[in-house]
């Protein structure tokens, strides 16, 4: 029997870049044999964990951008907007990366409706640190993500006809001219 393939875990090369406000890398850490895992912390928030064999680095999956143009080559980038950090993944089997990215995007979209805990509530909870690997995709996750997508992509209904359509219907054409400067220095 072949080993179980976990869609929420990757073995690959990772570069963690801290960015300045202009988006340029000011600090870069390269990890040749890293384990990238999707999971949840003690507050049930989604976390991306990069483990180099020594100390794991956790990145909260709140606001992020996925760059997947080169996913077929085994490369992608996950940019964490509030932390101004990006994780560059490379040397990954393309099929495993595709499953990982699909799991990440659907689970992230499904968790968008949940209100995050405030920092004060987290401190008051006093829960011990924990990390659980994400469960595989389930039908309810896909349905919830599709629901949220349909709400976002729904066409916006105009309340009434716009000024341009009114003018076209009525056949009016208003010409607006720019005011001339009041100077007598014309040639």
TrEMBL record:
Alphabetical keyword list: Nucleus
Pfam families assigned to the protein according to its UniProt record, in alphabetical order: PH_LRR1
Segments of this protein annotated with the region Disordered: 150-187
The keyword Repressor appears for this protein: no
Boundaries of every PIF1/LRR1 pleckstrin homology domain copy: 9-116
Ranges of biased composition (kind: Basic and acidic residues): 161-187
Identification of the protein by name: PIF1/LRR1 pleckstrin homology domain-containing protein
Species annotation: Cirrhinus mrigala (Mrigala)
